[in-house]
Amino acid sequence: MKIQALSPAQALVSLKSSEDGLAEAEAARRLEFFQPNRIQHVQRVPWWRRLLAGFTHFLAIVLWLAALLAFFAEWSDPGKGMATLGVAIICVILINASFSYWQEHRAERSILALERLMPDTVRVMRDGRLRKLKRAELVPGDVLLLSAGDDVPADCRVIEAFDVRVNTATLTGESYPVARDAVPTDTSDLIHCRNILLAGTSLASGEARALVYATGMRTEFGHIAQLMQTGGEVESPLQLQINRLSRLIAMLAVLLGVLFFGLGQWVGLGFWNSFLFGIGIIVANVPEGLLPTVTLALAIGAQRMAARQALIRNLPSVETLGSATVICTDKTGTLTQNRMEARLAVYAGTDIDLTAGQVALPATLVAVAALCQTLQPGEVDGQQTLVGDPLEEALLRMAENAGAAQAIPRVDELPFSAERRMLSTLHRSEQGLVLYSKGALEALLPIATRVQTALGESPLDETQRNQWRNAEHRLADRGLRVLAFAFRPVAEGYERDQLEREMVLIGLVGLEDPPRPEVPSAVRRCRAAGIRVLMVTGDHPRTGVAVAREIGLAEGQPTVITGTMLAAMSHSQLSLALEARELIFARVNPEQKLLIVKELQAKGETVAVTGDGVNDAPALRQGDIGIAMGLSGSDAAREASDMVLLDDNFASIVAAVEEGRAVFQNIRRFMTYILTSNVPEIVPYLAFVLFRIPLPLTVVQILAVDLGTDMLPALGLGAERPDAEIMQRPPPARHERLLDRRLLARAYLVLGPMEAAAALAAFFYVLDAGGWQYGVLLPADAPLYQAATTACLSAIVVMQMVNLFLCRSERGRAFGSGWPNGLIWAGLAFEVVLILLIDYTQLGNWLFGTEPLSARVWLFMLPFALGMVLLEGLRKVAVARRR
């Protein structure tokens, strides 16, 4: 039989233990067999292999190849600047590998956070004596003593309980404590078993003696840790697209390099010229600055999100959040405030709104709320107060708001138990003894004989009993936790087992974990942005539906799927169920929440997952972006997440989505900008081999564009603010690519050819002015040749200056809307300064093989820049009209 179905005595026998606990020798034997009570780490890939992976992916291998070829070329034919090229490419590889390793390293911290939730020492019976032991020394069969405020260190079967209520929010997400006792039960779900205490939960009130039956990775807590460790890392859509783009570009670069090396040999260029030609094609096609620019753009987006209370822990998540199509949100602490509050009272058939400032309540109801409780003195935010059961704290606040009852000495108490489902305290007032009781209506109604009204007390008949039941159902349908209040005068010389009888029913109080006030508007913004919001909670379905209606997540009758229903579903049934317009998952466990996320991803959704408890951690890691609460969230949830809400405000997610969408848009902007310059870098090499002209652009000069003049301006495009209408458009589909046909066509067929035409025109303009004749090959150190290549390089930079403003928008105005950000102007200034240094300083001339240009060469370039503005403007107008 399962341990929850056994009596306390049978449970002790089943684990060969006793109420005096285990003998030390037996405990030592079991510790060796069961292993220490701690979270075991799955063996992971060694750090050095993860670091090495950053140097060996496909794009990195191509860059290594380009660097090695550059060094070989420098060794074989010195003085061409190929060594400088090789060093620069290696620096790019180092930056990218370091960034990748940093992303991997963060995952290991999530398991350490789980361990910090477990208590360090526990009180254990050993050989009939009470001892304090380290948590790791616990074994199945140990008998623990737990009291209010203690964390549960292992999975236990309760064998004695006194007013025990357990806070299970870290595992279930439920916002209020649940009662626990020692009575056997047939319930199969351990999380909701009345006699089970699970590791990672804590006692909100009472005292318990409990038998340990599972430790370490065999606990439910360990099962969650196992899910976290074996779930694997999920690459973000951005990472997938960048990886795909890198492989595509790298393969294309190598293919073209080999092809044009062979072409050079075929037309008789000679080995070294053909070799130089092949390297040039590879370097021109590999955008060395792409990954660093993406990283820096993401970092800027992360800074802007942090200013809006969203802390990014994993940079690719900046863009991922903007691509989110579904948000799977926890209820407790995310949509709600994670604090109980009395919302509605029923007295004498009248509803009393308890949230409308100071309210007048019957003195007896206030007395029960203030006096019938088990709160203990404690400290909150540096102030002394009464702390304990959140329900009782909420009732005490209600009583204080209504004018708290006079303190009356307590002379006796009948503690709460799961069988009685009520708590009673006996007090001595000036009028004599009085018993105050609170609990479930179904517990108080059978023992009540009278009811208090505005005119006094009256007998309680069956019609009135039904009215009270209907009132309870009405409050419960609103998602409120309902408590009934009662009292009775008690004569001296009372019999204790006869106290709870002939009660006077006072009224009902409905309590709830109230929604955050800003959530409804955030939900509306999500809808306008085309983002579905699904509630996935461990709480009761009725509570979930009530909260969903209050925040606008459910307008009609939503589809509700409980954990029990989910367990019986096949994958296809779940997939179809996920298509419901309004959907709530309730009473789900961590593994089921993980399943929901995986199924959504299988349907092509980009899933953001929110949560604050340990139960949310596996799903947080599986989601495309995990969002943890910064104030109320557990360490495990924060460490498993990609983003932390510093203010626990669901509305901050919407602000972060806006920034994330801007990042997606900005990456497309600077990819267009960077890829455009590839065309004027490749075309000169094609002209060189096909038309037997001097090489218009050297490899080192290509590097000056890719890693010099293009980097900071591209970063400026990556820092652009979101467009005004960005949250009125649907999110990009999971299959939508950064590098699509529209972007490629614009970069390679429109902007790029215009830049290539300007670059070659400037090159030939200088050659012609210097008297060059077609067919004459100029030496690499000839002043005329160097001046011509300088003109080609400078023309590309000038055209890229214009392109910087053109790439601010894909359609609409030629230069985009709004004033450019400061980084764009800084990038423009940097381009100007850098090209002047390259053209007009001895160091620049030496490094890049350039010569100073005359003013007439610069003037020659201007018509090409103006023509580019005109043609691109006309293209944007035509695109806008087609839409």
TrEMBL record:
Residues 2-75 form the Cation-transporting P-type ATPase N-terminal domain. It holds the Pfam family Cation_ATPase. Keywords: ATP-binding, Cell membrane, Membrane, Nucleotide-binding, Translocase, Transmembrane, Transmembrane helix. It is a multi-pass membrane protein. InterPro entries: ATPase_P-typ_cation-transptr_C, ATPase_P-typ_cation-transptr_N, ATPase_P-typ_cyto_dom_N, ATPase_P-typ_P_site, ATPase_P-typ_TM_dom_sf, ATPase_P-typ_transduc_dom_A_sf, ATPase_P-type_domA, Cation_transp_ATPase_P-type. Belongs to the cation transport ATPase (P-type) (TC 3.A.3) family. Type IIA subfamily. This is Cation-transporting P-type ATPase. It comes from Metapseudomonas boanensis. The lineage of its organism: Bacteria, Pseudomonadati, Pseudomonadota, Gammaproteobacteria, Pseudomonadales.
